[in-house]
User: Fold these one by one.
Assistant:
Number 1:
Amino acid sequence: MGVTAEARGEREAGERRCWLVKSEPTTFSFDALLAADERTTPWDGVRNYQARNFMRDEMRVGDAVIFYHSNATPPGAVGLAEVASPPRPDPTQFDEGSRYADPTSDPADPRWFLVDVRAVRALPRMVTLQEIKAHPELNEMLVARRGNRLSVMPVACAHLDVLVALAERGDDGRDAAA
DNA sequence: GCCAACGTTGGC
DNA sequence: GCCAACGTTGGC
């Protein structure tokens, strides 16, 4: 027996993992994802090693994703999505015309990776950053931490669940479905 | 528009 | 390996 999968940093079979991705709505909104072909888009252009590592090494097809609008008024979580593909090299790194081109990346050993992200459903209402910060549980979320600039980050699935439940209540605390 | 926080780059 | 300079992110 010996070392567990967890101790090796691997995932138990069936283990649920959750994530948060950020996008500026003026660049690519959740509505744009809902309108996209197959409600899916390659999450390209990520040029941060930590965020890349999450996509390349840890995300799995079917993982739940919170879609967050950054640089918005107000910023906040607006939708649910899922990881829709295994990781693959981000083609924009080799596209000279792309703002994401990276001439130092070797096609035989690509530096940047992406996964496809598919929209699942919009939240019944936005859960704002302000609300996340004010919530006794959600304020532990990385996205609420000062100075955090990761565009792809892990989220405790318990936090995702709380956030969704919050969205399903009105911002007045009432059941939005009632 | 401002500015704090942070990652990257490059000189040494 | 250190660290100052610089560019970017993102809340406000």
Number 2:
Amino acid sequence: MDHLQHVNFDLRREGSSNDNNKKGDEDNNMDFKRGSWTIEEDLTLMNHIALHGEGRWNSLARSAGLKRTGKSCRLRWLNYLRPDVRRGNITLEEQLLILELHSRWGNRWSKIAQHLPGRTDNEIKNYWRTRVQKHAKQLKCDVNSKQFKDTLRYLWMPRLVERIQASSNSNNQVNIQQSNDNIISNNNNIVPNMSFTQENYSSTTTTASSENSIGTQISDMSANCYTNYPINQGDYGESLISPTGYFQNGALDFRTVDIHDNQQNMSQLLLDDVSDNFWNIEDMLFLQQQLN
DNA sequence: AAATGGTGCAACCGCGCGCAG
DNA sequence: TCTGCGCGCGGTTGCACCATT
């Protein structure tokens, strides 16, 4: 039960308090339990939401008999217990989408998450901080610098597209419509018509590594998100598939790329770091090709 | 085998917005 | 208009796990 690995951690926060109780927040009230959620608490919350739906989190927490703040319940539900939440490795397609959308919107994690089915803003934020910022740090440049943004935009993202295309060529095509019919539930609050027990608990909190049909189908779907995935476009004025226009019709367009403008920067990056597992040997060769 | 350091990620925090009264 | 509450967002924290020494 991989997803429960952290259930008992963070006990240091148990019972701690803070005087800044403002705006009606109950977060710092000593009467509320803090720290890791137990299986029993999870089951209580899931069953209550299954019966009564979500929202009005403070009163929900009270009526469910949970000694938790509404905030804590909401967070637990949205980031962990929702049936459609998807955890596990961020796929290449999702990485590409995150980079694209972040280049457009910045740290608007929830907005970005709306376009990655099953992914939470917290998970995307964690991905950005642990992966992308790490690489910026290793490349000795600020994550918000033009240098690093250019690296993402002109080298990392096209490279991801190449990898996606390479992998999609070797995989069977997926019936997107079928996936769409069966899966698309992002942005909707799903209240399954079932109650949760300890026995079916694990199957309701899916992980990406599990071979359940939902995880597989979502993965299949995301594999095609740059070609024909009918994502909810929300407030996009133009195509979500190619927000910045680099990937029109699924094809790379380097017309706007003047790699030589960044030649000095990129050369310095190459000198600075060749050891990272993201910028592997293949990537280094690719970068050098672009610079020559 | 033990110690140490790095990483991933769940959970917490403060802040601000929107809405109802 | 003002006030309080509910909620969501982005940033931060710190433990468990894992790899390395």
Number 3:
Amino acid sequence: MIPRFRFAPSPTGGLHIGTARTALFNWLAARSVGGKLILRIEDTDIKRSTAAYEKSIIEDLKWFGLDWDEFYRQSERNWIYQRFARELLDENKAYRCFCTPERLEDLKKRQYAEGMMSKYDNRCRELSGGEIEKNLKEGKKFAIRFKVEDGKEIKFCDLIRGEISFRSEVIGDFIIIKSDGTPSYNFAAVVDDGDMKITHVLRGEDHITNTARQILLFKSLGFSLPSFAHISMILGKDGSKLSKRHGATTISQFREEGYLAEAIGNYLSILSWAPRDGEEIFGIRDIMGKFKIPDISKSPAIFDVDKLKWINGIYIRRKSTEELARLCTPYLIKEKIIDKKDLGNEKVMSKIVKGASALRDNLKVLNEFPQYIKDLFREKIAGYSKDAVEILTLDTSAVVLQSFLGRLESELKSFDNNQDIDFNEEKSKNLINMIGESLKELKIKGKFLYMPIRVSITGKTHGPELPRVISILGLKNCIQRVNQTLEYIKNNKL
RNA sequence: GGCGCAUUCGUCUAGUGGUCCAGGACAUGGCCCUCUCACGGCUAAAACAGGGGUUCAAGUCCCCUAUGCGCUACCA
């Protein structure tokens, strides 16, 4: 028998990072043993579910690199829930409950006040045939409740946690069909897991308690029990449930901020699971054979953005320059550093490629790209930082800048007037070396050589390697900027 | 309140009774590389929640307490 796993999101929001991890683990577990993965949309809550969320969840799952073998939507399967509910009704394992929401609310309040666990008081359990008939005739709305016998022990062996048991009296008769005719979560899930012949239920820890109810249903419905495994929750930095307060929580938010699918998959894999060899950097496909459900950690995990960033940086460094440039471009548009119509402009595009190559090692998240590169897209220097001004104040700096400017100008002359000037890294490097050579006698070298040059074309003391900066800016812009800096020195009498 | 689950460095984890004065990774500090920032390399500091058992021996097994989280819906 081939193992069958399922992933069952409800489309009441985007794909949450925790839900994505559950999806990933199901995928990993299924693919590791050659099993099938079923995607099931649990949209029985007609008030909160939307088609838009469903679409976004599916898109995110695909972007994430997951695939599945079968697809179902619970809202299209109502007839089957009705059929099984009818069966339970006929077998006297379930009954119609005519209690109003108000009465139930009241009951709950009273029980809570007495310090008791809230639980249905079984009022409609023993309604006579006549009373039911009468209520039905009056058109009273009803829900269908499942009978839970007291005094039973419900046990199951969780693949991750070991044996877990509950006593049936803490459960109470629960609703399987709501008064609007839709099935409740516990019922729909069990009917589907049974009907779809699911062998492994791998889901979030928040379902442990539900498992007790569901086991009762599996048995009453005559289905064989699947194996259960409950994955711990993902918590925020402060130990509370991960929420908007902690930053991005859905896959699409992470994608928009500039996290790579590979990085998220990798990070989520090592959150609650560790390969035997201790290696932390791997693709989700690399661990397919190694992933074992019992190895999943029991304790909750705090989501560490810093570690995700570290991993994201690693995958960014593995990208080709062209691919990285392509990935970074949308962020440039978003920050209005370039315009959409620049996408066809070869000069702009080559500048982005050069920038991507220069900044690859600095990037941790794609959306950091604009802040690093924006200065190099301007015509002029926007301003000089404090430590940059200090560099300019040095006596030797003026000498270096004159020499630099001279070199740039003579270099420019070597090109024909209307020729497209591509001043690459190699040439930039040579140019700097030549300056160094000519200033050797003055013993200007190292920091005293490079820093004034850097400051004169960027206004800052930090940035990518100098030859790269020069190459990105191009000869003309460099000349313009050095002149601007010379002007600045003069005006401020540095 | 009831029930359930969890608890190893700040964080993620390795550890399945002796090889653990507890190993790795992120983050942090220092050093090296280096024009700077990063990258890379080296290094330092940093943990078995507390208390009882069981055992020759406990991070590892059992019990209690504490703390955190989840469920306690005609949400999923």
Number 4:
Amino acid sequence: MARDRSLPRRATIHDVAAVSGISRGTVSRVLNGEPYVSDRAREAVEAAVREVGYVRNTAARNLVTQRSGAIALIVHEPHSLVLEDPNIGNILLGTNAVLSEADYQMVTLILDSVRDSERVAEYLRGGFVDGAIILSARVGDPIALAVAELGIPAAFVGHPPNAPEIPFIGIDNLSAAREITTRLVDTGRTKIGMVAAALDRDSGQDRLAGFIEALGKQFNPSLVVDYPLYAYDTGAEGMRELLRREPAIDGVFAASDAVAAGAMDVLRDAGRSVPGDVGIVGFDDSSWAIRCHPMLSTVRQPAYELGRQAALQVLNQLRGGPRPSGGTLLQTEVVWRDSA
Amino acid sequence: MARDRSLPRRATIHDVAAVSGISRGTVSRVLNGEPYVSDRAREAVEAAVREVGYVRNTAARNLVTQRSGAIALIVHEPHSLVLEDPNIGNILLGTNAVLSEADYQMVTLILDSVRDSERVAEYLRGGFVDGAIILSARVGDPIALAVAELGIPAAFVGHPPNAPEIPFIGIDNLSAAREITTRLVDTGRTKIGMVAAALDRDSGQDRLAGFIEALGKQFNPSLVVDYPLYAYDTGAEGMRELLRREPAIDGVFAASDAVAAGAMDVLRDAGRSVPGDVGIVGFDDSSWAIRCHPMLSTVRQPAYELGRQAALQVLNQLRGGPRPSGGTLLQTEVVWRDSA
DNA sequence: TTGTAAGCGTTATCAA
DNA sequence: TTGATAACGCTTACAA
């Protein structure tokens, strides 16, 4: 990190005060639109501000006010997958809508390496943000720990297992998975498998648990394969493996729509018809779902709302509200289309 | 924006100095690993740091050092589309790799509203970042202007028309478009259309210009439709319109792979075979390209490298290097598959 | 309504 | 090698 002090020095309140002939205190009051300033003073200050091209140094202001006006949105994903996850975009959107409305700047911090984690922790400690929203935290996430330790207002989107006492906003992955798997059973499928993913996250674990619950004694562990990522390739590989293990497989729960898309392409190549030979369901109701042929039955996540509520939760803590110890689970909705 | 000062007061250098019996100056030296400190002093300070649980207040440090150790990555997109663009992820990845290596924190600022723009401009002025990388700037982008005015080290990814004098890293959209369109001509297509998009950006404009150049006098303006976004829906709508205008159309250049995917689905529904009846090419070489049936011929963008170079450019300016007035265009590569 | 002055938590300068 | 002390640019009592 190097320094470049060749930039022209920026005007400060001192300059404005000098030029306008008004004291720094009053200049500050004018700048902040506070009452108890005469029109004369205000005008003189405003003229001086224009004259010297003054812009506020927020870093200095932060130092004294002890706040930054920024809130971190921490995304914990291998970078290239940030864009693959259809939910993150909508969560971002919901969060930003609320934060923007409250005049907070949302700053997104993306991290996938240990080095990134340490730097982000340092950044959070540095007073750059007044609060944090943490997406897709993993088990034992160091950033989650750092945030908890710092004690700044925070919320999780999702519900990391063994998480520190930070409130969360999530969906009931288990119930949703149970419900959509039940459909497979009800339509007479008897050899039902699952391509699971992301078992290091609550969402991955809970979807698997729901699948198992729905099948009850019909559950066959050898018909479950799992991979690290919610990705198209996961679905493709997983489906090939499942077909190998049980050529007569007739039902598949894919841990996400992207996974389902990969699985469907493999099924087609293997000469299986959907939903004729194999019924398949996904999770997310992302753009993948409607681009599949046939279109995918899946679970709709209220991603935008998740982002909104997490932001509201942080804002509430910022306003001195309590930090709830538990969390909130939002409703999901099963969308029935043609794949099962 | 509210304040919550009920947090426990954090220990400062004063506390460390008091507890260790060492002056603030020396404490600061120890903390920054500077030379000229005795082992005795160092140990005393380190013990005191642990005892009082001291962590540095970066805001205060920034005030005096005039730097933040953070660099903004500004993404100018309608939020939900951030995730649709296959390049952004890789650009992020490349940028972060370089910045992380140099120990800078990358903070991503996403904006789509005017309100967002103003807040981000304010944020940039606030001294929160030492430099900025601007993605997908539009014509007359207010943030680009703000950055230029601020005079902080900066670079564009892409080459906005009429951009302020900020260096850019981009690709030669025009040549690439010309090259891939030529393929359509060379394979004997005679009624060639284009589904253009994002004409408010350099990429959109240049791809259209390349298309026009490649066709020469064969160019037929009525076979060009254009839409605001590089999106699947753009391709679907655009293809329907093109078929309406010219049912015998036999070649299509889609402004991006997502657009091409939408167009291909419409072609299929309309009973046209690809590449038999219609040859089609895209742009990006994103995951869309290999999920199409048949797989898409397209242009590969060095997105990761774009991000890398933009970051290097900013770092170089930060180190006092010159701010070049022009830009750099990276090579693209045409990937021939089965769609044309 | 305004000016003065004391911080905010660091780093940096300069004697000692 | 160390300790005072003056910045950094701003807000905020408090006094006038």
